[in-house]
Every structure is written in structure tokens, then in C-alpha cells.
Amino acid sequence: MKRYAALFVSVATMSALPAFAFDLSALEEELDVNPVESCNDGLELYQEGDLKGALELITLCRDEMSQINEQRVSAAFVDNVMDFVGDPLRHQNAMGFSQMERKYRKDNLDIDVALSTGQGATMMQSLVGVAGKKTRIGKFSGYVISQGNDNTFYIPLDGMALSIKSRTVEQKQLKQFAKAFMKGFPE
Q1: Which end is more exposed in the chain, N or C (fewer Cβ atoms within 10 Å of the end residue's Cβ)?
Q2: What is the largest distance, in Å, between two alpha-carbon atoms of the chain?
Q3: What one-character DSSP code corresponds to residue 79?
């Protein structure tokens, strides 16, 4: 039975669920998903020798956890940060890569915020470590890259990477925005 529990744990961790404080039961109800049931049913089929059926249910379990994770993370993309108003939140998913993006605007200024998970986050973190200058953004460590009018802050977060960038906002103000935006994220 221990190896079945290990299978569940490995499936559960594939979604890189951040530690946002939310009521998972409420999110399950809101999204009409039940990943625990899907995983348990998948494990049952596995124990009965139905590998194909088990894989389908374990995949469903993972997909349901990903839906919950996306809902939880999108809550951190608040509508207003330092009087910058957010456009609609955009989601992209492809080949193990997931990204949420939101543009914030105030007057003639705009800031792009993107949260990447999966392979995209890993790739971004390795590239930024080479090109960026280490900095502190509130309670988080990150990197800043400035080239002309382009300012970008990259913040690695447990299996995810957050980028906050602008061509119209100076680095000092962008860092203040980043600190304010990051208040919704766990340490």
C-alpha cells in the first residue's frame, strides 16, 4: 500500500501547488471537481490491474488539481495595485508550461505581470540568474534586469517564476509596484 500512497504523492506534486491559504473544499465545489475521488478511483483501478483506466483517472486527478491551482493563483492577480488597474487575466497552457498574465495600466504607464509554472519557470530562472542583478523585493529575493527603458523584476517562487516588467515605468516605481503586488503571495 505504501507504493500506492507514493504514486498519489507524486501525482499531487506534479501540479506545483503553491501554498496559498484557500479553502480547497470551496474551490472544489466552485469548480465542480473532486481530485481526491479521481485519484482514489485511479488507485483502485491500478490495484485491480486496469492500468489504462487508472492512468486516465490519475490524469483527470492531476487536471482537476491544476484547475484548483489556477483558480488559487489567479486570486493573487488583484484588480488594482497602486492605482494601476488590471486588464482581464489571460491563461496559457502548453506542453508542461503554464502562464498567467495581466497588464496593469495607469494614465500612459503600463506594467506586465506574468506567472510561469512548469518547464517555462525553470527555463526563465536559469536564464535570469546569468543576466540579472540580485535584489530584494519586499520579503522575496529576485533579480532585476534593466536595459534602456526596459525594466524587469524576476522573482523565483517554489516551482514558479514571476516576472514584472515595464518600458514606461522607472525601475524604482516598478520595484514599489512589485512589492505591493507580492503582498498576496506566501513566503
Answers
A1: N
A2: 62
A3: S
